[in-house]
Amino acid sequence: MNKTEYDYLILDAMSAYGGSFVQQLSKLARVADTSNFEKLKVTFANYWEEYDRFLPEGDRKQKL
After folding, report:
1. Residue 40 and residue 32 in contact, taking contact as beta carbons nearer than 8 Å
2. Exposure string (b/e) for 29-49, b if CB count within 10 Å is 16 or more?
3. Given CA atoms 57, 20, 29, 15 in this order, what sign does their dihedral have?
4. pTM for the model
């Protein structure tokens, strides 16, 4: 699973609005290889859903 533009928008929101754990998760996800990124995204899928609400309406729910 490659990182999409939507993933980077979510990671930006996590970095800007998250607590210390979510901010570190955002950093980790950015540097993860494809295999490890997929594991992180599946394991912490709730954060992708939670931080989607911080995106502008036009960018929300672009789950490609």
Report:
1. yes
2. beeeeeeebeebbeebeebbe
3. positive
4. 0.87
pLDDT tens-digit map of 3-39 = 999 999 999 999 999 999 999 999 999 999 999 999 9
What's the CA angle centered on 29, arms 23 and 34, to 5 degrees? 175
Tell me the three state secondary structure of residue 20: helix
Q: Which two tokens stand for residue 23?
A: 């901010």
Residue type, 47: Y
State the alpha helices, DSSP H only, in 3-53. 5-17, 20-31, 34-43, 45-52
